[in-house]
Amino acid sequence: MSSPTRRGRARAATESDIRRTARKLLVGQGPEAVTLRAIARELGITAPALYRYYESRDDLLENLRLDVCTDLAAEIAEDIAELKDEGLLQLFQICKGFRRWALTHTKEFTLVFASPTGATGTATGSALRRLDEPFGKIFLAAAGHVLAQHDLVMPPNDVVPPELRDDLTAFQQDLLTVLKESGREIPPEKLDLGLTYLMITFWARLYGHVTLEVFGNYPIPVSKPDVLFEAMLTDLARDVGLYSD
């Protein structure tokens, strides 16, 4: 394999500078502050020069979003590195790590998980929306391990609203592919619509709880949010048959 050319190395270094500057603006001021003009000003170049590296602001934000997802996945992977044989412990450590990261990286959380669909020209808003990305893979690999180890209390297929079945069927196939690639392959018949629905509602409750906490939107003042979060996880475990009194 030939070594990168001088021009290639220079381009890579400039892209790195652009992304590092964009991340600095994101962390310091939020997603709205990440503009091509602001980045050019920080780097001492003209805004049109940035179009040699990114087609648009949306293109830059998408790459920045991927950087943030990669960093989040690396942090979570470190959290669960010593729990490789414990799917349930991994899954709930991932939930706790996600909350911790969200509370300490609020601007990055806003870009990746709380931007309305299309706000950056991409579909953000959920780790499970893009199953092939690092965080989605870690979450689903742990979920697949739990499925292999435990008999979950799953809603029967006939309780799934008919209007959702086409969407869940499409998601089902994506889940099977990602689980297979992660080494957590499960029989297709086990991942029925009821279980797919269960996974979606599990994520929705986790994501909704964390989002409320990050933005301070609990309906009442909560003096011990850690206790509330742990209670929510216990309720989730109980609802799927992973915990009983």
From TrEMBL:
Residues 35-54 bind DNA. The keyword Transcription applies. Transmembrane segments: none annotated. Residues 12-72 form the HTH tetR-type domain. The keyword Disulfide bond does not apply. Gene3D superfamilies: Tetracycline Repressor, domain 2 (1.10.357.10). Keywords: DNA-binding, Transcription, Transcription regulation. InterPro entries: Homeodomain-like_sf, HTH-type_TetR-like_transc_reg, HTH_TetR, MT1864/Rv1816-like_C, Tet_transcr_reg_TetR-rel_C_sf. It holds the Pfam family TetR_N. It comes from the Bacteria. This is TetR/AcrR family transcriptional regulator. It comes from Amycolatopsis halotolerans.
